[in-house]
Design a protein that fits this description.
The complex is a heterodimer of chains A (288) and B (432). By secondary structure, chain A is mainly α. Helix content of chain A is 75%, strand content 3%. Chain A has one domain. Chain A is globular. In chain B, the strands form 4 sheets. Chain B has a 6-stranded mixed sheet with strand order 2-3-1-4-5-6, sandwiched between helices. At the A-B interface, helix 1, helix 10 and helix 11 of A face strand 9, helix 7, helix 8 and helix 9 of B. Chain B: It comes from Pseudaminobacter soli (ex Li et al. 2025). Chain B: InterPro entries: BCAA_transport (IPR051010), Leu-bd (IPR028081), Peripla_BP_I (IPR028082), TAT_signal (IPR006311).
Chain lengths: 288, 432
């Protein structure tokens, strides 16, 4: 039984890791720019396809392909900010609608470039760690370690660097930040780079484990929205904690019952948080 | 000047030559020639995109080879005249609504005489229009059959009934395996297959541990599913009729979570990728039901599929070895049956072809002589059933281990199958 529980905990840790990366990116974009980026799942997909192209296709080392995925998707995010979100900054729903359009464009580009079939990404490693009777493959371990490293780096960046302070200031009050001489455009551009890059790196890291398809973003975006609502919209710490809670609840319920019940429990978790603490676990109550 | 005029003339000649060359394939080559009206259109209505595309698109690719070979040989002869075969395809995306639109377009605009479908989730969208138009339609999933649509036939694949042959063979060859677990996606394809495997395991004296695990078709991480299955410590891991997008990660997870027992599955499409992502040793002995057609066992005289090894070679040449799937040959084999019946009937009209096809209650199935069967399970005898191959992975390659008789199993264990089909609500009377 202990092996069974440990195996489930390993499974949940992997799920929590990549979902935390995606959710933190989504929160960052929303926090700084006030935009609900519906194309975030497709940015995750774009990161996975970067690995399909550079690692499975061109044979570059996996780590190089992941780095390219991060930078490429980060640049896509900057392009979105420049071409879509900035011109629509004054329109509350404009960014959301534009991101849906961009989502469809990214899917179409993936279909035209790679076809509709699941992509086969060769395994990075077949090694695994054995703890008792439970197994954790290196591929999943890489995702967990990379997530811890990236989120730690992001935390240090936001807390210790001037630019991190600027990002946080914008997230708290854009107008006040602007009055202090912080460039809103520049902050938004870099927030999009980081937020999109995190989704991209999540896709890139998990590409060998999920067989990428052009529509793989659908599932993760729904889960990411649940996570940021549970964690508190705008809270990075909340997103991380909610990702861990959601992933563990979902994985354990899937293992002990089944996936459909796990989806229902995940939604009930969100409802419960909304009833008890409407602003989410780490969210700040809005002033009346 | 002279020189310029020569250049002008040469350019004109060049242009004429290029135009002639471009038109040559259209007008110039003699081969078999067909008048415009001597074309029979066949509808191909199956998922060409999406997660179930592996059971549609490779079949259309196979049909293109079939049509090329048939037309190069002069087409089919109907009433003393050669007819060219053309396929009109429509991507139903495994969706009933899209299948309805596709069937309407194929019948009204393309004037097809026969429609081939994967069936399952898409069939309910076509049922009414097929019955109203009297259109002859084939499905790969006989669980679509009901007495309400007499023009729906399952002439190639008796999914999931042939799965009994794999379990039967396994029980005979590895009698030490006594327990099994089953998982499947919770849909119209998974459930009848689970009922069949439950019956087959019970008939073979193999205990199924716990209830079958039906997972959400939207599942993307199969680690928890596999953890739950392996917690029961089974001798046999049965992957039922999972789609290729599920079989691959399930096998991978079984490998990564240290499973060392027997795996049995209905399909193992693109299995080379699974071998690549696990190991030859892990995949050794995995049982499924769909051979590669380069298998020499298919050259047996009882096999009715024409030139299976050449067909496979041509398929690999055109599309690549890793694109071969369970259905690559199936729609073509249905076309063999249809063409044979149409030629015997001297007509391509659906009613005439169906009558000729079912004449004498027997037919030439790809894997040998077979009988029209199914009244007990589907309410009418519209499934062509005979022998089916049991395929085993040996040294990383799919190999036919044996052909086993589905009717023989049915004669011995039919009531068991009816019991499990009834328990899961899969009898035709429960589905309508």
């Amino acid at each position: 039984m202990s092996d069974f529980l440990l195996q489930t905990a390993f499974n949940a840790s992997y799920a929590a890791s990549y979902m935390a990366l995606i959710a933190v990116g989504l929160v960052l974009i929303f926090g700084v720019m006030g935009v609900i980026n519906f194309a975030h799942g497709e940015l995750y997909m774009a990161g996975a396809y970067a690995v399909v192209f550079f690692y499975a296709g061109l044979g570059l080392p996996f780590i190089v392909a992941v780095a390219i995925g991060l930078v490429f998707v980060g640049c896509l995010g900057m392009l979105m900010e420049l071409a879509l979100f900035r011109p629509l900054r004054t329109n509350p729903l404009g960014g959301l609608i534009a991101s849906i359009g961009f989502l469809l464009m990214l899917q179409t580009v993936a279909v035209l470039g790679f076809g509709l079939r699941n992509q086969n990404v060769p395994p990075v490693s077949q090694g695994r760690i054995t703890v008792g009777g439970a197994f954790l493959t290196y591929e999943r371990l890489y995702v967990i370690l990379a997530t811890v490293g990236l989120l730690l780096a992001l935390w240090l960046f936001l807390r210790k660097s001037k630019f991190g302070w600027a990002l946080r200031a914008c997230a708290q009050d854009r107008e006040a930040a602007s009055l202090q001489g912080i460039s809103i455009n520049q902050t938004a551009r870099y927030a999009m780079f980081i937020g999109a890059g995190l989704a991209g790196v999540a896709g890139a890291l998990t590409a060998p484990l999920v067989a990428p398809t052009p529509y793989m973003g659908h599932t993760v975006i729904v889960t990411a929205f649940i996570i940021i609502i549970v964690g508190g919209i705008g809270s990075l710490e909340g997103a991380v904690l909610a990702a861990i809670i959601y992933a563990f609840v979902h994985t354990f319920v899937t293992t002990f019952f089944d996936g459909v019940i796990a989806n229902i429990v995940g939604l009930l978790l969100m409802l419960a948080v909304l009833v008890v603490k409407p602003q989410g676990l780490f969210g700040v109550r809005e002033r009346a | 000047m002279t020189s310029a005029s020569k250049i002008s003339l040469n350019r004109r000649t060049l242009l004429c030559g290029a135009a002639s060359a471009a038109l040559m394939p259209v007008v110039g080559f003699p081969r078999a020639s067909f008048a415009q009206e001597d074309v029979v259109k066949i509808g191909f209505l199956a998922p060409l995109t999406g997660p179930v595309a592996a059971w549609g698109k490779p079949g259309l690719d196979g049909c293109k080879i079939w049509a090329d070979w048939m037309n190069e040989a002069g087409g089919i002869e109907i009433g003393g005249k050669p007819h060219r075969i053309e396929f009109a395809s429509y991507d139903d995306e495994d969706d009933a609504g899209k299948a309805r639109a596709g069937a309407t377009q194929l019948i009204r605009e393309s004037d097809v005489k026969f429609i081939m479908m994967l069936g399952g989730n898409s069939w309910p969208g076509v049922e009414e229009i097929a019955a109203r138009q009297g259109m002859l339609v084939s499905t790969l999933l006989p669980s679509d059959l009901t007495p309400n649509t007499e023009t729906l036939i399952a002439p190639c694949e008796v999914h999931p009934i042939y799965n009994v042959t794999g379990v039967d063979w396994l029980a005979a060859n590895r009698p030490e395996l006594k327990t099994a677990v089953i998982c499947a996606q919770d849909d119209a394809l998974g459930k009848p297959s689970v009922a069949t495997y439950l019956a087959a395991f019970e008939a073979a004296g193999i205990e199924v541990l716990g209830d079958p695990l039906f997972f959400d078709p939207a599942t993307t991480d199969f680690a928890p599913v596999m953890t739950q299955l392996l917690a029961k410590n089974p001798d046999i891991l049965c992957l039922d009729t999972c789609y290729a997008d599920y079989v691959h990660p399930l096998c991978e997870q079984a490998f990564q979570q240290g499973y060392k027992g027997q795996i049995i599955s209905c399909t193992l499409d693109f299995y080379q990728r699974i071998v690549e992502r696990t190991s030859k040793e892990f995949m050794e002995g995995v049982i499924f039901q769909f051979p590669d057609f380069d298998d020499k066992a298919l050259n047996d005289p009882r096999i009715n599929f024409r030139k299976p090894n050449d067909f496979y070679a041509e398929y690999v040449k055109r599309y690549g070895a890793t694109e071969w799937s369970a259905v690559s040959w199936e729609y073509s084999s249905i076309m063999d049956l249809w063409a044979d019946a149409a030629q015997r009937a001297g007509s391509v009209e659906p009613a005439d072809v169906l009558k000729a096809m079912k004449e004498g209650g027997k037919g030439k199935h790809a894997f040998g002589e077979a009988r029209w069967w199914g009244k007990d399970l589907f309410g009418l005898d519209n499934a062509l059933v005979g022998d089916w191959p049991v395929v085993v992975i040996r040294d990383g390659k799919a190999t036919i281990a044996e052909f086993r008789s589905i009717p023989d199993w049915w004669d011995k264990h039919g009531p068991l199958l009816i019991k499990h089909m009834t328990d899961l609500g899969q009898m035709w009377s429960q589905r309508t």
